[in-house]
Specification:
InterPro entries: Rbsml_uL18_euk_arch, Ribosomal_L18, Ribosomal_uL18_C_euk. The protein is α+β, with helices and mostly antiparallel strands and about 325 residues long. It is about 45% helix and about 10% strand. Strands 3-2-1-4 form a 4-stranded mixed sheet.
Length: about 325
C-alpha cells in the first residue's frame, strides 16, 4: 500500500471520528435546532425588479386559470371555430347558467338562463336547490336550441327518470356541444352544479360527462341509483325534510318553509309542481324582455330662497348676506 492511500485512509478515519463526536456531544448537551443560528433569507434587488404579478382574477381568487386554459384552448386547424362552455354559477338566492365562448376581446355569451326566471313557469319558491338547478339547466338547453333552430330535431329526454342520458346525433346537424365549466365549485358527489348539468343533458345538449358525480351514485357499488337521483330532480329530498320538520319541530317548519306554506305547497304535491314546470319550460323557453316603467313625473314645487342658497349663488359671505336680508325686511316693514 502506497503512502498516498495510507494518508487517504487516515483522513477518512479522522473525519468519521469528528462527526461521531459532534453527534454524541449534541445528544449529551441537549442541543436543539432552535439553538442554532437562524439567518433570514434576503431577497435581492434583482428579485423585486424581475418580479411579475399574477393575473388580477387569480389574485382575487375568482378564476382558476389552469382549468380555464384547458377549457378554451382550440386546435389551430379549426381556425376561428368557437369552443363553447356550459358555465354554472351560484349566488345566495339565484342560479346563473350560460353558454359562453372565449374570444380575444373577451368572453361572448350566446345564451343565458337564471333561476329568478322560474316563477314565470310556476316555481316561485326554492330557487337555489338541486331541483331548481335542474330546471335552470333545462331552460338554458331548450333556449339555446330554440335560438339555433335545433329544438325540433333534438328534443332531449322528455321524462326525467334519473338515469344517465346522452343525446344521439341526428342525420343532418350534429348536437350542440359544450364543456362543463364549474369555476371554483367543489365537485363533490351530488353538488347542485351536476343538477344543472343533468337538466342541460335532458334538454338536448351534448356535454361530456360521467355519472359518478350525480346524486345517488354509490362509491361502493360504482353504480348510479336512478331512483335516488330522480328523487332529487323532483325535490323529494326537500319534501322528506319538510315532513320531518312538520312532525318533530312545527315552529321551525313555519320559519323555514313559510313561503311554501304561504303558496299552499305541501310535501306531497312538490313532484307534480316540478313536472308542470318542466312542461312549461319546454313549451316556451324564449326569454321575455323586462318592461321598464316610465319615470314618475314629479310636481314642480315653488322653491323657497334661503340665506345659505342666496349666499352660495351670489358668492357673498353668509354673515353679510344675513345683514342684507335684515335690512331688506326692515325696509319692507316700514313701507307697510
Amino acid at each position: 500500500m502506497c503512502s498516498f492511500e495510507k494518508q487517504k485512509g487516515r483522513d477518512f478515519w479522522h473525519f468519521s471520528c469528528c462527526l461521531l463526536f459532534v453527534v454524541i456531544y449534541g445528544k449529551w448537551s441537549g442541543l436543539r435546532k432552535s439553538d442554532l443560528a437562524f439567518v433570514k433569507a434576503q431577497k435581492s434587488k434583482a428579485y423585486f425588479k424581475r418580479f411579475q404579478v399574477k393575473y388580477k382574477r387569480r389574485r382575487e381568487g375568482k378564476t382558476d386559470y389552469r382549468a380555464r386554459i384547458r377549457l378554451i384552448n382550440q386546435d389551430k386547424n379549426k381556425y376561428n371555430t368557437p369552443k363553447y362552455r356550459f358555465v354554472v354559477r351560484f349566488t345566495n338566492k339565484d342560479i346563473v347558467a350560460q353558454i359562453v365562448s372565449a374570444s380575444i376581446t373577451g368572453d361572448m355569451v350566446l345564451a343565458s338562463a337564471y333561476a329568478h326566471e322560474l316563477p314565470r313557469y310556476g316555481l316561485e319558491v326554492g330557487l337555489s336547490n338541486y331541483a331548481a338547478a335542474y330546471c335552470t339547466g333545462l331552460l338554458l338547453a331548450r333556449r339555446v336550441l330554440k335560438t339555433l333552430e335545433m329544438d325540433e330535431e333534438y328534443q332531449g329526454n322528455l321524462e326525467a327518470t334519473g338515469e344517465d342520458y346522452s343525446v344521439e346525433p341526428a342525420e343532418s346537424r350534429r348536437p350542440f356541444r359544450a364543456l362543463l365549466d364549474v369555476g371554483l365549485i367543489k365537485t363533490t358527489t351530488g353538488n347542485r352544479v351536476f343538477g344543472a348539468l343533468k337538466g342541460a343533458l335532458d334538454g338536448g345538449l351534448d356535454i361530456p360527462h360521467s355519472e359518478k358525480r350525480f346524486a345517488g351514485f354509490s362509491k361502493d357499488s360504482k353504480q348510479l341509483d336512478a331512483e335516488v337521483h330522480r328523487k332529487y330532480i323532483y325535490g323529494g329530498h326537500v319534501a322528506s325534510y319538510m315532513t320531518t320538520l312538520m312532525e318533530d319541530e312545527p315552529e321551525k317548519y313555519q320559519s323555514h318553509f313559510g313561503l311554501y306554506v304561504k303558496k299552499g305547497l305541501e310535501p306531497d304535491n312538490l313532484e307534480e309542481l316540478y313536472k308542470k314546470v318542466h312542461a312549461a319550460i319546454r313549451a316556451d323557453p324564449i326569454a321575455k324582455k323586462s318592461e321598464k316603467q316610465p319615470p314618475k313625473e314629479h310636481k314642480s314645487e315653488e322653491t323657497v330662497l334661503t340665506v345659505g342658497h342666496f349666499a352660495r349663488t351670489h358668492f357673498i359671505h353668509p354673515v353679510i348676506c344675513c345683514i342684507m336680508m335684515n335690512e331688506l325686511c326692515s325696509v319692507i316693514v316700514m313701507t307697510v
